[in-house]
Write a structure and sequence with these properties.
The protein is of the alpha/beta class and 331 residues long. Helices cover 35% and strands 15% of the residues. Helix 7 packs across helix 10.
């Protein structure tokens, strides 16, 4: 019997973008044992995926050799390295099976950032690049998007959270102003103007994000511009809130992929990163807003400050355009 390890330790978007491959493997090999290997904190993203047989997690500070020992007991026949890191390289050496990986296109990415010379050719989305790791298993993309399966308890918790704030039946627009890197963040003043426009159109802005996003979320919520859920909900509960929303607005962050995983239309704001990197919304109802500047892309994942000091890639995307895109998705 096929026993397949799918290894991706982080992060939110990268893990959700593996789910088209998970789905294809289950359809092609219905009797196979599919085991997803990830960090414990990321497990909620795949814990309720019905296509998986099991989720094995790496605990914080756990040595890779201990994880490898547990994985060897599963007697895997195949290992799909969907991370391509030093940690997965060690795992490939410690767990004996037929391993395959995929190309991150690092040379093409570096050249595009440094010289603006595009060596990508066909800019395959990351979910389709993951299929390269399964080239021995006769699977192909099915032209459908990522999936984020939610537990009933997450939906119940969000329903109670909304009801407690008088939003039980309210039409919600989820806003995600946070990002790990500064250059991926749309200016706070733009978010405020967007929230105002959405409220004027009859939508209630709900600001989502992690604990680090509480500051900007509270700034947006102040003065009645919206309601903050930042830092209050788990990954699954954030997914349930996004599922409840009429639309979502996000930068190039994990929230964007959470929204597409629960089939919520999304407006995605791209600044320092570009389509060639492979992380645009995948087979989702979406609008991507970006500016055709000669300085893009300037980094692979964003950075602390704009190299040229102007941050025009996001500053130049006006709130009115974002509001029009969001309302167009809701209509």
């Amino acid at each position: 019997m096929l026993s397949i390890l799918l290894v991706r330790f982080s992060s939110i978007g990268d893990i959700l973008l593996t789910t088209p491959l998970v789905r294809a493997l289950r359809r092609r090999h219905p009797e196979a044992r599919l085991v997803f290997v990830t960090k414990r904190g990321m497990a909620p993203l795949v814990a309720d995926n019905p296509h998986l047989s099991e989720v094995v997690t790496l605990a914080p500070d756990e040595p890779v050799r201990d994880l490898a020992r547990r994985l060897r007991t599963l007697a895997p026949t195949h290992g799909l390295d969907l991370h391509s890191s030093l940690r997965t390289a060690a795992l490939r050496w410690l767990v004996h099976c037929r391993w395959r990986g995929y190309s991150k296109r690092k040379i093409a990415r570096t050249m595009l950032i440094a010289t603006k010379l595009d060596l990508y050719g066909r800019a395959a989305p990351v979910p389709e690049r993951y299929f390269d790791a399964a080239r021995d298993l006769d699977v192909r993309p099915d032209n459908d998007g990522p999936e984020f399966f939610l537990a009933a308890s997450a939906r119940e918790r969000v329903a109670a959270w909304l009801a407690a704030r008088g939003l039980g039946d309210a039409p919600i627009a989820a806003l995600a102003p946070g990002a790990a890197h500064t250059t991926k963040r749309w200016p706070p003043a733009h978010w405020l103007a967007l929230a105002e426009r959405l409220r004027g159109a009859g939508l209630v802005p709900v600001i989502v994000g992690g604990p680090d996003d509480r500051g900007v979320a509270q700034q947006l919520a102040a003065g009645g511009h919206g309601v903050s859920a930042a830092g209050e909900l788990s990954l699954q509960e954030t997914g349930a809130l996004l599922e409840r929303a009429r639309c979502a607005v996000s930068g190039d962050t994990g929230v964007m992929h959470l929204a597409t995983g629960v089939h919520t239309p999304v407006v995605a704001l791209f600044g320092p990163t570009v389509r060639q990197f492979g992380f645009f919304p995948y087979h989702a109802r979406s609008v991507v807003l970006e500016r055709p500047l000669d300085c893009r892309p300037c980094s692979a994942m964003g950075s602390r400050r704009c190299p040229l000091g102007h941050h025009r890639c996001l500053v130049d995307i006006p709130p009115g355009e974002v509001a029009a895109a969001a309302l167009g998705l809701v209509a």
